[in-house]
């Protein structure tokens, strides 16, 4: 019943996000420090919130039920995320959480605080490349507002809201990304605004630290005569372009994604939205409204620290870890890596179809983290027989030593044998 590979299993309990001096822990702490400080995330208790307090949780166990990971979050029964091709099942009743949202319900139901931050390792069967790894980390944020806050919003904006002008804006409110029917539109809009203000502030806080690290890493620019050198202060808001785009999550409506323009490109950072009221209701908070977001820590840490490959986070090499021992955001200084080696395997695809994730799993089971990347380099359909041939290239590299040709050949032979046996393909070479 279990489809959890040994490599993935060996990652459970590493708690990278709790290791002092690890880039993921530093990134997590930066998020926590923003929400924990009333100067950066001001309390709204004067408007009737429960006592302002954000509780940070980071040691919730990774095995949860499909109920917590999907059902409690309004995922439909046929949602593809539930499939065994996407999710690691421990047995029929338990799985490795695919996102930190799996803990939303329990956090809300605890009635401990107005807001929660939940940081944890999450697990998804996925492709293999420099930015994807089947285990990664997320921080979830949830914030709730009570009846007095909602009444103040309504009192400040008497009369119905005209949603028509908003509906014309694709990233805002429209039929496909609606305000929930149970919500007063004024309240939902105010929750959305509170969410956007909070998250734009978070992004400035985090990228301000990243910009500072970049300045520290680059030599001071020579001053042009008569032009004073800019002091290394926090980056002004206007220097960091952000954009809100429409999102879609079963557990929020409306939903958005936030992107930031960093080092020449738009970077998708986080998903968020107004929490489905049924989730608040089930947590015993039917008189509250709330927002939630989820952010991937690896993606964020890779750009902040300039770390080029997601597998570095798992390295136990001192040349990596010692660089961040002081717990600060700083630019990663590359050290020489061991060489890459690749091997191709071509095969006839079975009539029933072929799943790349299943191949990714096999390569990981055979060669562990030495598989750096899996790349489809050729596909063609034979004109007469109609059969399709595919060729995959497996890139091998060890983080901490040089691989020998003999061990790579042995892995490749094992992979081919298992492909024939488990995926029903006919190996061509
Ligand atoms: N759980 C979502 C994901 O993993 C992110 C999210 C969290 C979106 C909370 C909305 C609210 O993609």
TrEMBL record:
Highest taxon above the source species: Eukaryota
- GO CC terms in record: mitochondrial matrix
Its recorded name reads phenylalanine--tRNA ligase
Answer yes or no on keyword Transit peptide.
yes
Q: Which family does it belong to?
A: Belongs to the class-II aminoacyl-tRNA synthetase family.
Q: What class of enzyme is it?
A: ligase
Mitochondrion among the record's keywords?
yes
The species this protein belongs to is Caulochytrium protostelioides
> Which residues belong to any copy of the FDX-ACB domain?
336-428
Tell me its EC number(s), please: 6.1.1.20
The UniProt keywords, alphabetically, are: Aminoacyl-tRNA synthetase, ATP-binding, Ligase, Mitochondrion, Nucleotide-binding, Protein biosynthesis, Transit peptide
């Amino acid at each position: 019943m279990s489809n959890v590979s040994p490599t993935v299993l060996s990652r459970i309990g590493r708690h990278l996000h709790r290791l002092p001096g690890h880039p993921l822990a530093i990134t997590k702490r930066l998020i926590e420090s923003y929400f924990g400080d009333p100067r950066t995330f001001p309390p709204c208790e004067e408007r009737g919130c429960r006592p302002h307090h954000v509780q940070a949780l980071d040691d919730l166990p990774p095995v949860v039920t499909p109920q917590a990971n999907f059902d409690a979050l309004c995922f439909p029964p046929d949602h593809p995320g539930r499939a065994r091709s996407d999710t690691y099942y421990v047995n029929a009743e338990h799985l490795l959480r695919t996102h930190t949202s799996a803990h939303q319900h329990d956090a809300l139901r605890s009635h401990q605080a107005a807001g929660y931050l939940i940081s944890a390792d999450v697990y998804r069967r996925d492709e293999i490349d420099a930015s994807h790894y089947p285990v990664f980390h997320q921080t979830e944020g949830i914030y709730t507002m009570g009846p007095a806050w909602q009444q103040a919003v309504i009192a400040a904006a008497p009369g119905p809201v005209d949603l028509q002008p908003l509906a014309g804006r694709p990233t805002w409110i429209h039929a496909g990304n609606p305000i929930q029917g149970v919500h007063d539109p004024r309240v939902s809009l105010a929750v959305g605004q509170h969410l956007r203000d909070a998250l734009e502030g978070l992004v400035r806080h985090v990228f301000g630290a990243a910009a500072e690290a970049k300045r520290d890493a680059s030599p001071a620019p020579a001053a042009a005569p008569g032009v004073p050198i800019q002091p290394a202060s926090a980056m002004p808001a206007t220097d960091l372009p952000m954009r809100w785009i429409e999102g879609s999550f079963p557990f929020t409506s409306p939903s958005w994604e936030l992107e930031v323009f960093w080092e020449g490109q738009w970077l998708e950072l986080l998903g968020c939205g107004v929490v489905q009221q049924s989730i608040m209701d089930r947590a015993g908070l039917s008189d509250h409204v709330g927002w939630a977001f989820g952010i991937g820590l690896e993606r964020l840490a890779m750009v902040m620290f300039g770390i080029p490959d997601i597998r570095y986070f798992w390295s136990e090499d001192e040349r990596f870890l010692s660089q961040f021992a002081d717990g600060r955001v700083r630019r990663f200084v590359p050290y020489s890596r061991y060489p890459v080696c690749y091997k191709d395997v071509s095969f006839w695809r079975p009539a029933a179809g072929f799943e790349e994730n299943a191949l990714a799993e096999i390569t990981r089971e055979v060669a562990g983290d030495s598989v750096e990347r899996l790349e489809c380099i050729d596909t063609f359909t034979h004109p007469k027989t109609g059969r399709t041939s595919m060729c995959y290239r497996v890139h091998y590299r060890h983080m901490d030593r040089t691989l020998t040709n003999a061990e790579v050949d042995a892995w490749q032979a094992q992979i081919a044998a298992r492909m024939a046996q488990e995926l029903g393909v006919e190996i061509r070479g």
